[in-house]
Every structure is written in structure tokens, then in C-alpha cells.
Amino acid sequence: MIPVEAGTAVVLYLLSFLAVIAAAGLYNGIRRRAMRVEPKPTHIFRCARCGHPYLDAEELEHARCPRCGMENEPQRI
Ligand SMILES: [Zn+2]
Fold first, then answer.
1. N or C: which end of the chain has fewer CB within 10 A?
2. Radius of gyration (C-alpha) of the chain in whole angstroms
3. Tens digit of pLDDT for each residue in 22-55?
4. Model pTM?
5. 30 and 58 share a domain?
């Protein structure tokens, strides 16, 4: 075993404790960034037949109503 003074042992203990906390914070930050999902651009549609509002992909010019199946144009806001 390596002989170490009591003061040095306390400092090493505290530094190792801080290193564990920093590593846990870094790991948590990486995990949060990996789980973030960017929202896709969407258009708001309102069905002309049943009035049901719904979202669909921005690139679509017409989207089918999930309730009644009628094709609708996106709403202008
Ligand atoms: Zn509808």
C-alpha cells in the first residue's frame, strides 16, 4: 500500500467524489441531448365535412381527415 498523509487522503477523496459527480452530470447531459426529438413542420387542417382539426406534414397540399376520410386543404393562419 502507498503511504499517504491524512490531509492528502481527504483531498483525494473529495476530488474523486467531485469527479464522479462531474461524470454523472456529463452522462446525463449527453443522454438528454440524444433523447431530444425535433418537431417536424406541420400544417393545421380542419375538415370541411365534420369540422375535426388535425395536423399533418407540411409538404402535403391535401390531407385526409382521420375521422371521415375527406381530403382537406391546410388552414391559413
Ligand atoms: Zn372529417
1. N
2. 28
3. 999 999 999 998 888 888 888 999 999 999 999 9
4. 0.49
5. no
d(CA 6, CA 32): 39
Q: Ligand 1 centroid to 60 CA: how many Å?
A: 17
Task: Give how far Cα 40 sits from Cα of 17, 46, 55, Å.
Answer: 42, 19, 11
From the CA of 19, how far away is ligand 1's center (Å)? 58
Q: What is the pLDDT of residue 37?
A: 83
33/51 same-domain check: no
- Tell me how far the alpha carbon of residue 54 lies from the centroid of ligand 1, in angstroms: 9
30 and 51, same structural domain? Answer: no
Query: Cα of 56 to ligand 1 centre, how many Å?
Result: 14
Domain housing 50: 42-72
CA 40 to ligand 1 centroid distance, Å: 23
User: In the chain, how many domains are there?
Assistant: 2
